[in-house]
Write a structure and sequence with these properties.
By secondary structure, this protein is an all-beta fold. The protein has 2 domains: about 120 residues, no CATH class; about 160 residues, Jelly Rolls (Sandwich), CATH 2.60.120. The protein has 2 helices and 22 strands. Strands 2, 3, 5, 8, 9, 11 and 14 form a 7-stranded antiparallel β-sheet that branches. It starts with 11 loop residues before the first strand and ends with a strand.
Length: about 300
């Protein structure tokens, strides 16, 4: 078996399994926003292919993101899925790497109102850290709008408002939203079951692994992968086109991309339709294997080391 083949050998040295954490919704509180505003709304910002985001800084304690509510409306008589993602804030108006998917909503023809993006897994926000929440939609004709009220009311609350971005440019259109959070559950406050890293990496619970894998947004919001070693050296870039060239659920385990010089390879797996990354560990014959569900952090993964024979 060569090193780029998906391994079916069962001699597992170390196994790390990510258990998806149940979202805690108790004691949820609104910490920033401008809903309901004046109660009268404008179709301010079209989404698709354009995107819009709002940045903020967490004050006080670490918290769990409970929901992000936004006033959305249909403007092309089509059914459209809108996605909210949490991104790193690196200064300026270009959102950094995606950290997690907050949720999706479906806007139906002629529908308008407040929609709630609710995480399916725990997303922790760290005190003193700044983030972007970005809304995106498919298509090229702006099928959905993110409204603001007639007074263009600026966000306010206990968290620090930074600003809006529209396609990586500062925007003074104050789109209507509410950011809701809750206290970190007691078992998580002690650090139990929390990721070791909050920088957007997919394998965010692993500490002894030889590679770091990030989901990466490319042009027009399509996602791929960037893979680094633990010293920050880029080992492999997997583009959205390379991912799209392989069936989503192939009949056999199928190679998406590989680097002969670094030994890193990425596959789409038969049956489960999951992604798999193989990388050498530095020990002869032993490979680090990462199997994951999506191109974001906190989407669920399994990792282990295995001898390939």
């Amino acid at each position: 078996m060569n090193r780029y083949q998906y391994s079916r050998v069962a001699s597992v040295a170390i196994t790390f399994v990510l258990s998806l954490l149940l979202l805690q919704t108790v004691n949820a509180a609104a910490v920033l926003g401008n809903l309901p505003g004046t109660g009268t709304y404008n179709s301010a910002t079209g989404l698709g292919p354009s995107f819009k985001g709002v940045a903020f800084t967490v004050t006080g304690e670490n918290v769990v993101l409970t929901s992000f509510d936004a006033y959305l409306g249909d403007q092309t008589s089509t059914t459209t899925v809108v996605t909210a993602t949490l991104h790193q804030y690196n200064g300026g108006f270009t959102p950094g790497a995606a950290i997690a998917t907050i949720g999706t909503v479906t806007v139906n023809p002629s529908q308008a109102g407040v929609f709630s993006f609710t995480p399916s897994t725990t997303i922790q926000l760290t005190s003193g850290t700044s983030y972007w929440v970005v809304l995106t939609a498919p298509g090229s004709t702006s099928p959905v709008y993110w409204a603001n009220d007639n007074a263009n009311t600026a966000p306010s609350g206990s968290y620090t408002y930074i600003g809006y971005t529209f396609n990586n440019t500062s925007s003074m259109t104050f789109n209507s939203f509410t950011l809701n959070v809750s206290a970190v559950p007691s078992d998580e406050a002690s650090g139990a079951n929390l990721p070791a890293f909050f920088d957007g990496r997919i394998n965010n619970y692993d500490t002894g692994n030889p590679i770091i894998v990030y989901g990466q947004a490319f042009e027009e919001g399509e996602r791929g992968l960037t893979i680094y070693d633990t010293e920050g050296v880029l080992l492999l870039v997997v583009t959205p086109a390379e991912i799209a060239a392989v069936p989503e659920c192939p009949d056999t385990n199928t190679l998406i991309a590989a680097s002969a010089s670094t030994g890193v390879a990425v596959y789409r797996l038969a049956g489960s339709c999951l992604y798999q990354v193989n990388a050498p560990t530095g020990e002869a014959g032993k490979v680090y294997i990462l199997i994951f569900n999506g191109l974001f952090a906190n989407a669920g993964y399994t990792s282990y080391e295995e001898y390939i024979r």
